[in-house]
From TrEMBL:
WD repeats: 95-135
PROSITE patterns reported in the protein's UniProt record: WD_REPEATS_2
Name of this protein: Uncharacterized protein
SMART domains noted in UniProt: WD40
Pfam families: WD40 (PF00400)
Keyword terms of this UniProt record: Repeat, WD repeat
């Protein structure tokens, strides 16, 4: 899996978060990029260069996740709170959804949102009614989560991987080649998703045809292994899968040929990534990724962008 092209110039936001970005998302309705941060704030930037800061919404605890849904932005914190931010008025409402950290928020079929927590639950909500429509009780703390079509894929502590069918309400535990902690997960299509681990490894898992799955090493040197911190899939060409690592590199891969087609070096650990809705821009949050444990880090957080024209 050799790289065919390397870039090192990027656009970046005009005002950086003061701590590491935890998640980045593009709004499908508003000209906005949303960034949740460990500094307990949501940052909203224009969705194209020069990526100017439009507003900053402060909360009461570090933010772990964010998502856009129509005219609101959702954000979750380390205490299990959900913040609902009205993008037209800037007002913020708070709901206590979980008993521990709200680790992931995902939008499902445009009318439901899914939350996954360290309190060992996944919940599905209807935003308009404000009601929970389903709850999945887990055996362990949730670490990663994504959804596609009619399923939710998630991992829990102990490297357990599950696929939950929302139509049949059935759960299947899946096998993995990972030996160490799974750090990230991204749904690829209606029958497969990819996971990345702290051991510099990615694995494509196909739950309908397991033989189509495969694993490969990435974000490694001859002497060091770096964590795969983020994975995302191009929404307009789902053959293109992108990984972001603790080595500061972003790699674009072709899923079918299994070839690396692009390297982007940002020199600082990648902590989160997302494409805009037409797949022409990739946004990446960079900062300290805790790979060296709890210590004061001199890594400067930032948010950078790769345009299709750069590739």
């Amino acid at each position: 899996m050799s790289s065919t092209y390397t870039i090192s110039r990027f656009d970046e936001v005009d005002q950086q978060p003061s701590d590491t970005p935890s998640e980045i998302r593009f709004s499908q309705k508003h000209d906005l990029v949303g960034v949740s941060s460990w500094d307990s704030s949501m940052y909203f930037y224009t969705a194209s260069a020069p990526y100017k800061l439009r507003s900053k919404i402060e909360t009461t605890a570090p933010l772990l996740t964010t998502a856009f849904m129509d005219d609101v932005c959702l954000a979750g914190d380390t205490f299990g709170n959900l913040f609902i931010i009205d993008l037209n008025t800037g007002t913020k409402n708070t709901l206590k959804l979980h008993e521990s950290g709200l680790r992931h928020i995902r939008i499902f079929n445009n009318n439901l949102f899914i939350t996954g927590s360290w309190d060992k639950t996944i919940k599905v909500f209807d935003l308009k009614s404000g009601q929970s429509v389903h709850q999945i009780n887990l055996e362990e703390r949730l670490y990663t989560l994504d959804c596609h079509s009619e399923y939710i894929a998630y991992t829990t502590a102990g490297n357990n991987i599950y696929k939950f069918d929302l139509q049949t309400q059935s759960k299947v535990q899946l096998q993995s080649k990972m030996n160490y902690q799974i750090k990230c997960l991204a749904a690829v299509d209606h029958e497969s998703f990819m996971v990345g681990s702290i051991e510099s490894k990615c694995e494509l898992i196909n739950f309908n045809f397991p033989d189509k799955g495969y694993a490969f090493r990435t974000h490694k040197t001859t002497t060091e292994l770096h964590s795969v911190n983020a994975i995302c899939v191009n929404p307009k060409n789902r053959e293109i899968i992108v990984t972001g690592g603790g080595d500061g590199n972003i790699y674009y891969y072709n899923k079918s040929t299994r070839q690396r087609i692009l390297t982007a070096n940002m020199y600082t650990p990648i902590t989160c990534m997302a494409f805009n809705q037409d797949g022409t821009v990739l946004g990446a949050g960079i900062g300290y990724d805790w790979s060296k444990g709890y210590q004061v880090s001199e890594t400067k957080p930032n948010v950078k962008f790769i345009k299709k024209d750069d590739i």
